[in-house]
Write a structure and sequence with these properties.
The chain is an alpha/beta fold and 325 residues long. The protein has 2 domains: 149 residues, Medium-chain alcohol dehydrogenases, catalytic domain (Quinone Oxidoreductase, Chain A, domain 1, Alpha-Beta Complex); 124 residues, NAD(P)-binding Rossmann-like Domain (Rossmann fold). It is built from 10 helices and 16 strands. Strands 3, 5, 6, 7, 8, 15 and 16 form a 7-stranded mixed β-sheet that branches. Strand 9, helix 3 and strand 10 form a beta-alpha-beta unit. The protein is globular. It starts with a strand and ends with a strand. It binds NADP nicotinamide-adenine-dinucleotide phosphate. NADP nicotinamide-adenine-dinucleotide phosphate binds next to helix 1, helix 2, helix 3 and helix 10.
Length: 325
């Protein structure tokens, strides 16, 4: 039986529950392929699975994103061949040297997109795509607020929003992150650990507020984000890096100007294979055209995923992080 080394958890908890172990892989069944990973994307959602905030089967291999090369193909697989380079977002069990995966969940990589780049951008870039293009369609001339602008999703989304013609206000945790966000599409940055971001957004918009706020910080920014919106504005709450938003009365949306709130997830937007492929094609196009630059400021050996989790949760990373098997 073929095996692989993988980062597994047997119980939920802090980064110390991550274990580097030998795990069985098996042969590809009908519709499956064996993918040899060369780069694995680190995502904040991995920390939610590890901590137990989002449930997962135990014991289980962490991670949801990787890129690599197909080394074996099961019965009935069409359009994917041995030797092909491919990547995937939002499929559980990516913190491993190799894995079995349904061929339908893979996106073949075009020439010009390296595997490390793919692992850094598939989940985060497709998230940016559905946020800016499908959840609220950002239009030229609009001003938007994007929290955690120097993060993995943030740096991609800010470049994409600027490309769409928006003025981008981004919140960031440090002056160094402010510089990075400005170099990746942000017109204005706010140090939200020091400054009142609601007041600054009001100042920057001459009191009008913004039509949309993209908020993945959650608990710490929720109320303030509502206060940054113009009447009938939309809060897109897509993450909770600072903790879960406590239950709230829906009536506060009336008092603050007939607001909308949505809580979307990438899984909904790429559930159909054609949606996954179409969104990925748009992302590749923007990256290959140079409108969106994907950098990988941090890489860690996969075996050291524990250290990567500590740095991500400690707000010490910026942009994308890749784990190398
Ligand atoms: N719903 C979806 O479909 C979807 C898909 C992908 C990602 N997400 C969410 O999008 C967010 C970004 O994901 P990512 O992987 O790119 O992570 P990331 O943005 O690189 O890392 C999270 C960032 O959040 C900020 N932050 C604010 N308060 C924090 C706190 N108390 N603890 C830790 N970080 C805090 C930090 O930036 P500063 O230091 O600048 O504050 C930190 O770097 C996450 O919340 C994730 O869950 C959602």
């Amino acid at each position: 039986m073929a095996t692989t080394r993988a980062i597994r958890i047997h119980e939920t908890g802090g980064p110390e529950v991550l274990r580097w172990e030998e795990v069985e892989v098996g042969e590809p069944g009908p519709g499956q392929v064996l993918l040899e990973h060369s780069a694995i994307g680190l995502n904040f959602i991995d920390t939610y699975h590890r901590s137990g905030l989002y449930p997962m089967g135990l014991p289980g291999v962490l991670g949801r994103e990787a890129a690599g090369t197909v080394t074996a193909v099961g019965e009935g697989v069409e359009g994917i061949t041995v030797g092909q380079r491919a990547a995937y977002p939002m499929v559980a069990g990516s913190y491993a040297e190799r894995r079995l995966i349904d061929a339908d969940l893979l996106v073949p990589l075009p020439d010009g997109i390296e595997e490390r780049t793919a692992a850094a951008m598939m989940l985060k870039g497709l998230t940016a795509h559905y946020l800016l293009r499908r959840t609220y369609e950002v239009k030229p001339g609009e001003t938007i607020l994007f929290h955690a602008a120097a993060g993995g999703v943030g740096l991609i989304a800010c470049q994409w929003a600027r490309h769409l013609g928006a003025t981008v206000i981004g919140t960031v945790g440090s002056p160094e992150k402010a510089e990075l966000a400005k170099a990746h599409g942000c017109h204005h940055t706010i140090l939200y650990r020091e400054e009142n971001f609601v007041e600054r957004v009001r100042e920057l918009t001459d009191g009008a507020g913004v039509p949309v706020v993209y908020d993945s910080v959650g608990k710490d920014t929720f109320e303030g984000s509502l206060d940054c919106l113009s009447p009938r504005g939309l809060l897109v709450s897509f993450g909770q890096a600072s903790g879960a938003i406590p239950p709230f009365s829906i009536n506060i949306l009336a008092g603050k100007g007939s607001l909308f709130v949505t809580r979307p997830t990438l899984a909904t937007f790429i559930a159909r294979r054609e949606d996954l492929r179409a969104a990925a094609a748009e992302l590749f196009e923007r990256v290959l055209a140079g409108d969106i630059r994907i950098q990988v400021p941090q890489t860690y050996p996969l075996a050291e995923a524990e250290r990567a989790h500590r740095d991500l949760e400690g707000r010490r990373t910026s942009g994308s992080t890749v784990l190398v098997p």
